Amino acid sequence: MMYNAYETLYPAKKEPAAAKNLNFSNLDSSARASHSAPAMAAESVPGFSNKSVKNITSTSTAVNESGQHFSRLNQDASAIRLDRKAALLLKENSEATNKKLLKIEKELDNLSNEVRYLATTKSNQSNLNDQIKNLYQVVKNIADKENSNFSLLYQNMNASQNEVSHLGKLIKNNNAQIKLMLANQYSHREKLRLRAIITGRAWLVNEAGVTYTLTKGSEIPGYGKVVKINDSKEQVVMSSGYIFR
After folding, report:
1. d(Cα 190, Cα 194) in Å, to the nearest integer?
2. 193 with 204: CB under 8 angstroms?
3. Which helix (H) or strand (E) is 38 found in, with range?
4. N or C terminus: fewer CB in 10 A for the chain?
């Protein structure tokens, strides 16, 4: 009977369906006080026993504890969502960082390859320079040796030319002497004597009385050509060296 009277004074409020997920963590002190209002009102109702008041208070306390539990669950869920967002953001940043690191690593590899290539090229260039220097030294030595040989050869050629020139003079003198000897021998076979001479012209006669008229360049067998007619000395000089007087 007392229970029915309580329900008559304080009918139970039906909560809408959406209220099942109500977050009790947002309840302020005035709302929590409204939940304890039934117990305070029940105490003022005549005929209510202390046991009924305690039941109502226990129920209100259980409701408050449930609200606090749901509040903690909501806070944990919010923390979990934040942790998930942070994890996703960290994953994205990590992927971007990994891509940058891979790019930097690739650039470092390329740079390292270029450095090795330059070092190899420099080494090859140094070796090539050494080879060029060695080749230049070899060519220089050959050129110096050839110059020395050419100088010696030139000296030998000059000496040979001098010898040839001297030999030519000897041969020429010998030929002249030979021609003179032949002319002298021929004069014993056919004697000719100078009969008359005028400027640029001379007359020779043999033992048979035959007369030969001579000018410069006339040739007499066995005596050679007329080289000079000297009327002042009354001489006819022949190419063999024989002189008619």
Report:
1. 13
2. yes
3. helix 37-44
4. N
